[in-house]
Target: Leucyl aminopeptidase
Amino acid sequence: MSSLPTIDVSPLALPESGVLVVPTGENGKVADTLPEAVATLARKAAGIAKFKGKAFATLDIVAPAGLDLDRIVLVGTVPGKTTPPDSLLKLGGTIAAKTKGAEKAAFWSVMPDGTPFEAAQIAEIALGAMLRGYEFDRYKTKGGKRNGEEEDEADKPAALRILTDGPQAATLIEAARAIADGTCLARDLVNEPANVLGPVEFAEAAQALSAVGVDVEVLDEAKMRELGMHALLGVAQGSPRPPRLVVMRWSGADGDAAPLAFVGKGVVFDTGGVSIKPAAGMDEMKGDMGGAAAVVGLMRALAGRKAKVDAIGVIGLVENAVDGNAQRPGDIVKAMSGTTIEVLNTDAEGRLVLADALWYTQDRFKPRLMVNLATLTGAIIVALGNHHAGLFSNNDELAERLLAAGLATGEKLWRLPIGPEYDKMIEGKFADIKNIGGGRAAGSIVGAQFLQRFVNDVPWAHLDVAGTAMGSPASEYNQSWGSGYGVRLLDRFVAESYETR
Model:
């Protein structure tokens, strides 16, 4: 993981050196609390440059003689037609981008109208700055790192001080760092090439969470075979790299309520198997474990901020490869639940992995609820593009809480239907069910309807993150191909609705 910027707080006073970032409104309006010399300079520079103060727009000013600062950066705060829910994250990302390479940077945390930013808002700004500081460059030999040399100073994120007189900001920033660490861990896992990150290596990355207090258990192929996980094992049989099922447990609750369970699809590379994918874009199938990456990142975040909740994370890790041992279209496998599955398309493999992972989770842990994440279908991208993940659920209250957390974090969801009328689409000819529908219609719904067969009566939600976990649009706080989508969403979901107070 690349080093994230150091962020701390100090009293609201003009720093002695470095870069000062100042929130700015229309016509160069800045807070009255700013020292007069800085305020006058900001207003004059904004007038000369016709700086409108639009949200996240910036104006860079070289500090004149008489000020010990190097630069002053005005950052716009005037909202557009709509104010995005992640506007504070975007503000933090903008600050990090404009101060990159500086030895020191500070943010004057008072709005142009004189309203101080609250501690929770400051933590969101800090989180945005930390997330913008992420880079995945460990394999580059040109640019930032050359032949073992130290990273170029211009490429390093600045150490950021947030200037505030408000209490609690430092504590909330530490919690934000735990969330940033979890998100960036998920980004790292998605960005890693498949020759480096196989099922065994992925399991080892999850085991490293024991250092922050997560209990980790790894089931090998022999144990999964003993448990009857033949749906998952069938996907793995074409690869020489053995599968793993990883169970992570965070125990932070004060009471004895049933745990929350989060389940992730972890196909470390997906060729499509015998139903092989086209060559174009197949390289991106290293990201077909984005759901599992998010679960690992979430467990890291919960442990890092010592969340008062009991949570289970389960990830099924396989490689869907193709050789003489690979599963064939037409094969029939028996899932751990006893359900027989006709495998008509070996590229619809994620639902087979999740079938056993979901059944195992609900059977062993009797959770309060289950949320699974999976880069399950290309059809969800056709339906929603790259700005929303698909949400399917058998429980309205659970769905509403997830939707609210998505809006609050900017990791947005859109609910799509499931129901008995779709069951006929997965009825098998030679087995209980089949792993695809009869055509192109309702592809994402069919995938969700299949998964629902393995949750019993547990409140459950399926998040199809195929369009958001990898290759999603860049933003002010994410410049990475692997976005870490789902970590912040589910952390907020847990914090708002399920932590003991």
Notes: Residues 24 and 76 are 5 Å apart (CA to CA). Residues 169-191 form the longest helix (23 residues). The chain has 13 helices and 17 strands.
